[in-house]
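pls ignore typos typing on phone
zinc ion + seq
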Amino acid sequence: MSDAPLPERLDVVAVAPHPDDLEILCGGTLAKLVKQGYKVGIFDMTSGEPTPRGSLETRKAEAEEARRILGVPLRINIEMPNRVLMDSPENRFKLATAFRRYRPGIVIVAAGRTPAASPDHHQGHLIGEAARFYSQLTKWDERFDGTTPYRVPHLVYVPFPTDAEQRNWHSTFVVDITETFEQKLASVRAYRSQFDDERFERVKHFISSTNGYHGFKCGYKFGELFALPHPVGAPDLVSLVYGSKPTAPPDIPVGQGHIPMG
Ligand SMILES: [Zn+2]
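k done
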């Protein structure tokens, strides 16, 4: 067993291959979770480097600036290799070790296969799912740096909008990020080595369109899409349905919802 004291438990951990993936996919939700008082962590699987315009030092500084902008207290790097990231036992052990240390209640995994972007994204999806499972395994502590087995209770996917599979998730939901949308854009802007002015305008358009589209479907100005590996459980149908609406539904006459296309 490792003698190192365990860090404080986290409520939510988000994990993706490259620093900037999570800002683009769910930066608004991460900033909102922090505002709501949850303990949030970002786990980058790789440094994200090399890239054509970046370096290890600049990317690290940019990731730190983005972390500060989102207000997320903890960001760690799992130190897997960029560009050649593969779902392997060793990489599963590495990520599972971090789960066992920080014992998150929810793990958000960036999910999908992006044929026009890095293949690391798909591998990261697989590693995230496997590490979540491995984290609970007994009699293997030596593979996890002597940490104690920990079962991550909840897995949430944040899908890449360019996922080639266009998966039929068991269930999806949208988080209202209207209040933290500008924070999200600023966190992406921090990655100047990846997005010069022209590229930032393009990614900003992509983010605004995607978050505008997902938000609109639920009556929010901007929203981020998530998915679950199972149907949504509902102890109370009314609170589930009403709770997702931005205004109090009982005032809305039947058949005259405020969402034009809802
Ligand atoms: Zn990426």
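The longest strand covers residues 106-111. Residues 12-251 form a domain with the Rossmann fold fold (CATH 3.40.50.10320). more later
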